[in-house]
Amino acid sequence: MEIGYAPETPTAAAVNLGHSADGLAWNIVASIIDFRPNHSIGINYARTGAGWLLSPQYRANEALFEIRYMWRPVGLPFLEARVRWREDLEPVVGSLRKGEEFDTYIRLTWDFTVKDR
After folding, report:
1. Could you report the per-residue pLDDT of 75-95, keeping only the tens digit for each?
2. Burial class (CB in 10 A: 0-12, 13-18, 19+), 80
3. What are the residues facing 3 on neighbouring strands?
4. Dihedral pair phi/psi, residue 14, rounded to 5°
5. For residue 52, what pLDDT band results from cuts at 50, 70 and 90?
6. Pairs from 67-71 (Cβ < 8 Å, separation ≥ 24)
7. What are the φ/ψ torsions at residue 54 (nearest 5 degrees)?
8. Alpha carbon distance 62, 106 (integer Å)
9. 76 alpha-carbon distance from chain centroid
10. 13: three-class secondary structure by DSSP
């Protein structure tokens, strides 16, 4: 778990909200590594206030939920899959509803070495 607080935050106008920006951010990550040989899974939940400006992974004014799975078989391609959902904590001024985003990805990585003769 991580928690952070930014005591100096942008104005409400700067973050496009109807009230002052909250500088609190926190996340909880829970992982099970090698629950089966070479298989791992983890979940991540985070909440980031609109005044939090310091993280490239967690956007300001957002709640995030993510599930990530990894399979690292010996001698075969490495597989990683992620499902992620993001939602604004507060609607942006002028919006009728909160922003929401859902994305997934699957990545195969094959490691190989080229030898000189």
Report:
1. 888 999 999 999 998 887 778
2. middle
3. 26
4. -70, -35
5. confident
6. 67/41, 67/42, 67/43, 68/41, 68/42, 68/43, 68/44, 69/39, 69/40, 69/41, 70/39, 70/40, 70/41, 71/38, 71/39, 71/40
7. -105, 0
8. 24
9. 27
10. helix
Whether this model's pTM surpasses 0.85: no
Joined tokens for residue 88: 């604004």
Structure token digits, residue 83: 């499902």
User: Do residues 92 and 17 make contact, with C-beta atoms less than 8 angstroms apart?
Assistant: yes
Instruction: Round to whole Å and give the CA distance between 69 and 28.
Output: 17
